[in-house]
User: What shape does this take?
Amino acid sequence: MSATVLILPGLFNSGEGHWQTIWERMLPNARRVQQRDWDAPERQDWVAALDAAVAAADGPVVLAAHSLGCATTAWWVQQHAAAPHAKKVKGALLVAPPDVERADFPAFVRGFAPMPRTPLPFKAIVVASSDDPWCALGTAQAWAAAWNAAFHHLGARGHINAASGLDDWRQGRDWLVELTG
Assistant: This one.
């Protein structure tokens, strides 16, 4: 895979055992987009960090987003899709998008609601779980449709994080390769 893989973790970052952390170590072209504050996210800051990472990348880019990283991606598209460097993004793997519109969504996460429904200008795959505590399966399917993204139901895998036991998640890496073509 010749594209740069920008890893976009969600709230609190992705720790040990998370497929994103494993991918960052095993894929030589993977780079984590660092956020100023993982514990009290501000949408403008997170979107700006993604925009800077895309602009700084040499050549094509594929996004590997988890949870709030998916919302960050949707907001980035809404705000920056017309920028010349945005054309570097060839695809996005959007895993376990959170329902930022829920009444019980953490109040310290600011500015991510409502979830943008702007169609994505690149290939995308949304992956969701039937028992994700942060998003109903139907909501994730509706966002995939709005974004013109393919949708994959992973079964009962919780929030598709380290607790889901995916390790290096071969199936996810295969989807990532599919997005670079």
